[in-house]
């Protein structure tokens, strides 16, 4: 079963700064205006890039998708940057994002 929740973009942005606390298991970023995202090989490099992009830009949409035993925080900046962070402890993340 898949559940999708709308998330306040400011709460999502704040959660990214401490995403490791939720058991981060994956990070993906696609930036249509740059090729840099294609050169990021490690989870740490992708997370640093994501934090930089969120510091420089305001997110326009955020959602939490709960599927199986994980949660995926999806953040969009306009139609240019798409961020997907997968965590194990989605229940803790859900509590922090939806309260």
The largest β sheet comes out as: 5 strands, antiparallel
Low-confidence stretches: none
Q: Provide mean pLDDT, rounded.
A: 94
Number of strands: 5
The Cα radius of gyration reads 13 Å
What's the overall geometry?
globular
Give the tally of structural domains.
Answer: 1
Polypeptide structure, described:
This protein is α+β, with helices and mostly antiparallel strands and 99 residues long. The chain has one domain (2-98). 32% of the residues lie in helices and 35% in strands. The protein is built from three helices and five strands; from the N terminus they run βαβαβββα. A five-stranded antiparallel β-sheet has the order 1-3-4-5-2, with helices on one face. A hairpin with a 3-residue loop joins strand 4 (70-77) and strand 5. The longest helix is centred in the middle third of the chain and has 14 residues, at 43-56. The protein starts with a strand and ends with a helix.
Can you lay out the helices and strands and say which pair or pack?
Elements lengths: L1 E5 L2 H9 L6 E8 L11 H14 L4 E7 L2 E8 L3 E7 L2 H9 L1
Antiparallel strand pairs: 1-3, 2-5, 3-4, 4-5
Index terms:
99 residues; 3 helices
Summarize the structure.
With 99 residues, the protein is an alpha+beta fold. It has helices at 9-17, 43-56, 90-98; strands at residues 2-6, 24-31, 61-67, 70-77, 81-87.
């Amino acid at each position: 079963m898949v559940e999708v929740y709308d998330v306040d973009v400011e709460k999502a942005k704040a959660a990214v700064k401490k995403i490791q606390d939720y058991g981060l298991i994956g990070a993906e970023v696609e930036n249509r205006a740059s090729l840099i995202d294609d050169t990021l090989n490690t989870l740490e490099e992708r997370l640093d890039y994501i934090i930089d992009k969120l510091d420089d830009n305001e997110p326009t949409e955020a959602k939490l998708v709960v599927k199986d035993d994980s949660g995926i925080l999806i953040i969009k900046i306009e139609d240019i940057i798409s961020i997907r962070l997968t965590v194990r402890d989605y229940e803790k993340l859900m509590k922090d994002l939806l309260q």
